[in-house]
Design brief:
The structure holds 2 protein chains of 2 kinds.
Chain A: H1 3-10, E1 14-15, H2 20-25, E2 30-31, E3 35-40, H3 46-59, E4 63-68, H4 73-78, H5 89-92, E5 96-100, H6 101-108, H7 117-134, E6 136-142, H8 144-149, H9 154-170, E7 174-180, H10 194-197, E8 200-209, E9 212-222, E10 231-237, E11 240-245
Parallel strand pairs in A: 3-7, 3-8, 4-5, 4-6, 6-7
Antiparallel strand pairs in A: 1-2, 8-9, 9-10, 10-11
Chain B: H1 2-12, E1 19-24, H2 29-43, E2 47-52, H3 57-66, E3 74-78, E4 94-96, H4 103-116, E5 122-127, H5 129-135, H6 138-154, E6 158-164, H7 170-179, E7 182-185
Parallel strand pairs in B: 1-6, 1-7, 2-3, 2-5, 3-4, 5-6
């Protein structure tokens, strides 16, 4: 087989996010089954990006699940950007599903504040069951930082993300894990483990340039595809997340992300 | 009226999705606006996206009302009202950028309006390169123009860049030559 042909046959199937700018950055979308960390400080657009990913999935017929860890999904929906392409029928038809993780904890009897190895297995198993039952192809956990808060040790966090990623990947489910970091953080996650295990890392941030604060996005890692590693400026609009390249002509001082 | 006819005729003779610099003197400003918004864009069934960093969109809208030009297919990206801290009410045909130094956000708002008006092709007017040059250095402004014009070309949109003759520097002329397919000098005939 000629090298070019081999290259083409080895190309991994993509999960087209539906966010044009991001799909271009990732050379066609996220390789299907990848677990991607969406990491950044508050107000940088992580949740909006993830919700749009799910809505587009639901529109093209891929069942999509949002697992909310800290705030109830009803509150989340009331604050969601009124996307032009969003139709509540997607929720009614079961294409777009929202679950509050604390409710799952309660059902599983996971009431301890600290999870051990056994609880990690129960939690991964429960998420797997939901994914199977609802035939989920796109999943967002918002935020993984809040889940990891209960896991305490780096070993447990590593174990949880590895098991979760491998379980979801085997089901062809593409997953975004939202990671919260403080604006001054030098690493990509609170515990320093998540980014090493995830297949991809997309960083959102705020960049201060001569007194202007710009929202930015940068794909720093994505297994299974060539991708841009440049920084882009993003805008959250009713037509979805829009991205343009960050201009480099001026003097730049970073402030978080 | 001569300027309006002259400009609209010159533009009509250009290929689709052309990037054009309109060099003018201040006294021709409103004639040029009329040529673009009341003649050319209507003739070509275009949605006009008017990027203003010179005067607030509210002032242009007032002028258009006086000239009896309908706003149905005219949209504004206003980069100057917020920096002036003007409390004026937000117009439904205008989106606002905090400052003319936020050139990426300016591009994002143009992109947003292109998507919102996807049924028709677009005419994007940049008013003006001189006022943007007050707030931005040449390097970043050149980069911005290069990306914006090429994006608009790919989207089959016309780009019209206003340049006021009396404020045009050598740097601005070079920048405009690099990105424009054509430079039209606006002068009243006779």
């Amino acid at each position: 087989m000629a090298p070019r042909e081999r290259e083409e046959t080895e190309e991994r199937e993509r999960c087209i996010t539906g966010i044009d700018g991001l799909d271009n950055i990732l050379n066609g979308g996220i390789p299907r089954g990848n677990t991607v960390l969406i990491t950044g400080s508050i107000g940088t657009g992580k949740t909006s990006l993830c919700l749009e990913f799910l809505v587009h999935g639901a529109i093209v017929g891929e069942n999509s699940l949002y697992v909310s860890v800290t705030e109830s999904y009803e509150k989340l929906l009331s604050n969601i950007i009124p996307y032009d392409f969003f139709d509540r029928k997607l929720i009614k038809d079961g294409r777009l599903v929202f679950i509050d993780l604390p409710v799952v904890y309660e059902k599983l009897g996971l009431e301890k504040l600290e999870f051990e190895f056994e609880e990690v297995n129960i939690l991964v198993g429960a998420i797997g069951n939901i994914v199977d039952e609802l035939n989920i192809k796109r999943l967002v956990i918002d935020s993984i930082t809040s889940v990891c808060y209960r896991l305490k040790t780096q070993e447990n966090i590593r174990d949880f993300i590895l098991k979760l990623g491998s379980m979801l990947s085997s089901r062809g489910c593409t997953t975004l894990l939202v990671s919260e970091i403080s604006p001054t953080e030098e690493r990509y996650s609170e515990y320093g483990v998540e980014e090493a295990i995830a297949d991809g890392v997309i960083v959102t941030g705020n960049l201060e340039r001569r007194g202007d604060l710009l929202r930015t996005l940068q794909a720093v890692k994505m297994r299974g595809t060539m991708h841009s590693r440049a920084k882009y400026v993003l805008d959250l609009t009713t037509v979805g997340v829009l991205l343009v390249p960050l201009l480099k002509g001026g003097s730049i001082a970073t402030a978080g992300g | 009226m001569a300027v309006t006819t002259e400009v609209s005729e010159k533009l009509s003779s250009l290929p689709e999705a052309a990037a054009v610099t309109l060099r003018m003197r201040a006294e021709h400003y409103f004639d040029v606006i009329r040529a673009l918004l009341d003649v050319f864009s209507i003739k070509k069934s275009l949605d006009a996206i008017y990027v203003t960093s010179t005067i607030p969109s509210a002032s242009i809208i007032n002028a258009l009302e006086v000239l009896e030009i309908r706003l149905d297919h005219i949209w504004f990206v206003d980069c100057i009202s917020q920096i002036m801290m003007s409390p004026g009410h937000k117009h439904e045909h205008a989106v606002y950028v905090e400052s003319p130094t936020m050139l990426e956000n300016l591009m994002l708002k143009v992109e947003y309006l292109i998507r919102k008006t996807k049924d028709r092709k677009n005419l994007v007017i940049l008013d003006s390169i001189n006022s943007l040059a007050i707030h931005n250095n040449t390097k970043i402004l050149s980069e911005f123009l290069h990306i914006l014009v090429n994006n608009l070309r790919a989207k089959e949109a016309y780009t019209i860049i206003f340049s006021m003759e009396q404020y045009e520097s050598e740097d601005i002329r070079n920048m405009l030559n690099l990105v424009s397919d054509e430079t039209l000098q606006v002068e009243a005939e006779g």
